[in-house]
TrEMBL record:
One of its GO terms (molecular function) is S-adenosylmethionine-dependent methyltransferase activity. It holds the Pfam family Methyltransf_11. PANTHER family: METHYLTRANSFERASE, N6-ADENOSINE-METHYLTRANSFERASE TMT1A. SUPFAM superfamilies: S-adenosyl-L-methionine-dependent methyltransferases (SSF53335). PROSITE patterns: UBIE_2. Residues 51-143 form the Methyltransferase type domain. GO terms for biological process: methylation. This is Methyltransferase type 11 domain-containing protein. Keywords: Methyltransferase, S-adenosyl-L-methionine, Transferase.
């Protein structure tokens, strides 16, 4: 059952879909965060398949295509209007409606997954990280960039975590945390986790 919070978030992004690409936040928040996650990824990975969860209008995937033009690109978002724009602007990627908690992908089908400034909208964050781990291949990695708070403040906003809480969510899902660089854009930290290969 969807929570009221989740429903309101999706409705907001449905209304925002047609103007999202022109939002002031693209230049001042999303672009710096995208640059940071791509810098971290490019120094570590050469993926054959890339997934963006909460892909919005496909902005990050267009940048991913510049880094890895041969990679198979997928985007997932719960807002239909966002996906309409993404399909128009990003023909090199395949887009599907879905959420972090219910990814429409097969098990072990993704080398590299991103989530940038969408995690605080996820209805069940722990389940979402487990779902990302499900679709990652053994040795595949997840780069999650979202707002963080110091541990002593994290209780104020239950969907915004400290670095330690984020590490725990990853580890509980079977992801080995490689690094947590940041902050980016002042309040954003990246958590990089790799799916532990089966013995």
């Amino acid at each position: 059952m969807k929570s009221k919070h989740h429903t309101l978030d999706v409705e907001l992004f449905e209304r925002w879909g047609s103007t999202y690409e022109r939002s002031w936040m693209q230049q001042h928040l999303f672009d710096p965060v995208h640059s940071a996650v791509l810098h971290q990824a490019a120094s570590r990975f050469k993926p054959a398949s890339v997934l963006d969860i909460g892909c919005g209008s496909g902005r990050l995937l267009r940048k991913v295509h510049d880094y890895w033009p041969e990679a198979r690109l997928s985007g997932v978002d719960p807002a239909h209007k966002m996906l309409e724009v993404a399909r128009q602007l990003t023909p090199e990627a395949r887009f599907s409606m879905g959420s972090g908690e219910a990814l429409p992908l097969e098990d072990a089908s993704v080398d590299l997954a991103f989530s940038t400034i969408s995690f605080h909208h996820w209805r069940d964050q722990a389940a979402g990280v487990r779902e990302v781990a499900r679709v990652l291949r053994p040795g595949g990695s997840f780069l999650l960039a979202d707002f963080t708070l110091p541990t002593w403040l994290a209780w104020l906003l239950p969907r915004v975590h400290s670095a330690a809480q984020m590490r725990m969510l990853f580890e509980q899902a079977g992801l080995d945390v490689q690094a947590q660089p940041g902050p980016v854009a002042r309040f954003v930290r990246i958590t990089i986790g790799t799916k532990i290969a089966d013995d």
